[in-house]
Amino acid sequence: MSGLDPKHHMDRGYFWIGLWGGVVPDNLGTLLRHAHILGAKQFFTVEARYTGDPSDTGKSWKIVPAVHYENIEDFYLHIPMGATLIGIERNGMPLSRFVHPERAVYILGAEDIGLTRQMRELCDKIVTVDYVVNIPYNVATCGTIVMWHRRFIA
Question: Is 17 in contact with 40 (CB distance < 8 Å)?
């Protein structure tokens, strides 16, 4: 364990993190592994388009439940009561200014097209990971930054 202390208010809450329309199995596996490392209570996919097995060398799905939802409607019906749905996408509030809610469900968009308009409209908030150069982050990296920010900065 590092010398950093997680923020105490986050100990009372929980978060889920997942990916809509994911294409690349390696991104899925990396995001799942980091969800385990950073304390997610659930990992999910919605309308996944990848083929093959996710590359999760730590077998994180044995610790963090990994759930697949067939479509957006099914996913939306299963969001926990009182949780805030947060889309991680361009043109949102900068992560550096975002205050994470105690109960959050974070959803990232597919590597090639991001979140659909329908998914964006369902989100309570849209957050953008800050960057210096206008080049998008890899989806697994972006999700990891959000989880790290929640755990150690916010």
Answer: yes
129 DSSP assignment = -
How far apart (Å, rounded) are the C-alpha atoms in residues 5 and 48? 35
**Which of 55, 57, 53, 48 is CA-nearest to residue 23?**
48
Predicted confidence band of residue 56 (pLDDT cuts 50, 70, 90): low
Return the percent helix, strand and coil in the chain, to nearest 5.
Answer: 30, 25, 45
* pLDDT for residue 1: 41
Tens-place pLDDT, residues 66-119? 899 999 999 999 999 999 999 999 899 999 999 999 999 999 998 888 999 999
3 state SS of 23:
coil
Query: What's the rounded Cα separation, in Å, for the pair 34 and 118?
Result: 27
What DSSP element (H or E) covers 152?
helix 139-152
- Which structural domains are found in the chain, ordered by start? 8-152 (3.40.1280.10)
- For the entire predicted model, the pTM comes to 0.88
